Structures are given as C-alpha cells and as structure tokens.
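Thread: Newbie trying to understand structure tokens

Hi all, I'm a second-year student working on a class project, and my supervisor (Dr. K.) asked me to get a predicted structure for one chain before our next meeting. I've only ever worked with sequences, so writing a 3D structure as a token string is new to me. If someone could post the tokens and maybe explain what I'm looking at, I'd be very grateful. Here's the chain:
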Amino acid sequence: MSRPRLTLLLALSVVPLLAARPARADEVLDLRDALRRALAGNHELQRTALDLDAAGARLGGARGQFDFVLGADFQAKQTRTPERFPSEINLTDPMSSRIDFMAGTQTDLTGSLRLMRALESGGQVALALSATRTDSTSALTSGALFGSTGGSTAPTSFWQVPITLTVSHPLWKNLGPALATIQVRRAALLRDLEALRRARTATDLVRDVVTAYWDLAYQSRDLDIRRGALRLAEDQLQQTRELIAVGRAAPLDLHAVQAAIADRDEQVLLGETLLLEASLRLRRLCGEPPSSGLLRAAPPPPLTERVVVVDSLLQRALQQNPSLLVLRHGTRLQELDVQAAENSLRPQLDFTGSFGALGRKTEFVDSLREAFKFSSLSFSAGLSFTLPLQNRAARGNAAAARLQLKRGRVEIAELEAVTAEAVIRLAAALRVAARRVEVTRGGARAATGSLQAERARFDAGRATNHDLLRRQEELSVAQLREARAVIDYLRAEAALDAVTGENLDRHGLALQPAR
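---
Reply by user tm_fold:
Sure, no problem. This is what the structure looks like when written as tokens:
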C-alpha cells in the first residue's frame, strides 16, 4: 500500500475521534513539563524503580547469612534397666559382692541454649550452654554401691551444666572472605545492575520523550501552516468574488480557488489527525491515560548550532553510554561466577575444634558456678577431607562460566563499535541538519517574497488565480521543509545526548532515589 493511501486511511480512521472531541482549547505543553510528567508517570520507569527496590531487599536478605542465630531446645528422656541377677552384698568381703550397677530407672531433663554465627572468613562459631537434671535409682549413678539392704538404692538427683565453644572452618574450599561473602557480593552487584538499568531506562525515556515532543512540535507547526494555507485560499476566494462582482474576473475563476480550498481543507483534517497521533504517543510515554484532547508544543527556541568534536563525543560515549555500563557491570557478575566455579574444583578440607567446661553438682546454681570455674575441661580437634575423583560437574560448570565471561566481553566490544558508529553518524546528521536549517530558512524567505510579488502582479491584473495559488502552495512547502529541518536537528541532538549518556544532565533532570 502506498504511503499517501495509508495516510488517508489513517486520517479516515481518526475522523470519528476528532468529531467526538469536545470543543476546547488545546493544551500547550513545554518540553520541561513533558519530561517532568514522563519521569513521574512512565510505567516502564516505575517498574525499574520497583526492580531496584526488590534488589535492595534481596541484598539485605543476603547479608542475613551473617546474622546471629539463637537456638533452644528441651528434651525429656527416661531409661529403665531391669535387674539381670539378684544383688548380693557381702559386708565382710566387698570384693565378692554381686551388684547389677545398671539396674534401675534414670530420668534426664535437658535444656540448652545456642548462639551461632557464620564467619565472613568462611567458618562458623557456636557457643552452647546446656543443663541436664538426672534422677536415677541405678547403683552406677546414685553412688550407693554398698547399702544396708540388698541391692536397693535411694534415688539420686544431680545437675550437669556443660559450656561448649565450637569452631568449624574450611582450610581449602570456601576459604576466605572473597568466597564466604560471594552471595552478598552477588546481591550487591545485582542491586547496582538494577540501578544502571533504571538509569538506562530513564536515558531512553528522555530521548523518546524529547523526540516525541519535537514530533508534536512539527505536527503543531504543520497544522498551523495547513490552516494558514486554507485561510489564504479562503481570502483568495473572497477577493475573486469581489473581482467578479466588479467585472474584473470571470465566474470560471472560482473553480480553481474552490478546488484548492477543498484540497487544503482535507490537508487540515489530516494535520489534525497527525497531531492527535503525536499527542497520544506523548501521553503514553508520560504514563497518562489516552485522551482526545490535542496537545500543542511550544515553539522551538532559536537554534544554536552545537560545536561537534567527534573524538570528544566518542570518548564520552564509550565511558558513559548506559547500555555499555550495564554490559560492563554484567561482566562483573560473570567474573563472580567464574570465581565460584573455580572454587568448586578444590577438595574439601575442614577443621572442627571445640573447647568446653563442665559443672556437676546436686544443685543447678552450684553446677553453673563449677562450670564457670573451668576446673573440668574438655578439648577436641579434627579434620575432614573430601575429594571428588572425577569432579566432572564442577569442571563443566567452571568451563561454562569462563566461556560466558568471554562471550560477555565480546558483546561489550561489539556494542562499543556500534556506539562509536552511532556517534559518528549522529554527529554527521547534526551538521547536515544545521546546514539544512540554513538552506530551508532561506528557501522559506524566498517563497514569501515570491508570494508577495505574485500578489502584487495579481492585484495589477497580470497574474491568475492559478499563479497565486501555486505561490501559496510553494510557500507552504517551503515552510514545512524549514520546520522539518529544525525538528530533524533537534531529534539528532536528542539521540546524540542519549548515546553519550548526557541527556538527563542537559535538561537539568535527576532520577528520584528508589524507596
């Protein structure tokens, strides 16, 4: 389908919207207000802010692996041991006594408190305080090995209070802060990556809003020019009727003007359609609901041609381009994956040691005091070693991580080349657009002069309606070309600022910190 036919179909599809639009003044919007509304309401930017908040929450959760952990438990246990043979106690010859030391009932009530914490070096430390109350009728624990009555024993109660400090630490695999804190570092990198993605989204949004705003400015100017051309034709129609009334023109001269009015009336309708499309596009970028109300852009400020130094622009783009920053930060995550994968290739060698003190008395307080005197001590130390003989999973993961890192670096090199090419193209487009502005501005002045001259010839009777209408059309075309050249310059400027990552600063904007 040809472009003119497609444009006409678009105009016809929007005619009902324009007809249903209530009569009201168009809203005039300046660029800064449009940018402010976009940063506050754009849905994509809001999603990136929520992603950043979630990444910050995950970072807080990752740091929780080094929190202190308090544990407590309680256990009740009873053991009943029947007598295997009759107890016989010989008071004259104790060595010949027969006693079943294990027979009896023993009840243990145990409670403990533990305080544990993972260490940033990779190990873990735990401090435990336990208390066990034992009630026993067995000769072994009651102490009544020799009694006056058979093998019977009186119940005995006592407390055991151990205090134990346990340390476990890797000596090879997972050793050191770089590996022990790898999940925290990953979460921090992911949070920073989300912040960079949010900045990239904001940069792209500002570029799109500025581009959409200048398109709106062009459509606003386009509609003004079309309406101006229609008014000129209507004035020409009135003047032609006056000339016919005094006999200076024939009634046939009306046909050319009436045909021009019909054509220009259609062009005005098309201009309103295109302006509505530009308004809807800008509203969508600002996160606003669709509306049939037309937006109008303020006239562009006087252009000041920017001095373009390609080498300087290239340097800034390679350092500040948001997409490049995201990719480079992504390789830091890949480097972390390589570090973790290479750590998994190491054998596991762990040390475990403990130090403890025990208090054992009939009363709890006495047992606790005895434990803190450290008179009854215990020590332990041990090593454990694990070596996967083939370790194919770890080797495969390490190889894949290294290849992923290489791929990330290739993507960075490719994007650097694309960015440099974009800077060169946009710098050239900026220079060309500046030259086009000068040329088309001169053409618009010349078309204005030609129309004035043709008007004088028409008033003198030496030019026809066709001649005058043609000059009017030439002026409209020249004015549209000038407007297009100005907008193309401003669009190229916005694209260049986005590539170099400077468009927020150029418009005096800053992202609000995520909550």
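A couple of things are worth pointing out once you decode it. The beta strands are 27-29, 68-81, 104-118, 124-136, 156-170, 295-297, 348-361, 377-386. Confidence is low (pLDDT under 50) at residues 1-23, 144-152. Feel free to ask follow-ups in this thread.
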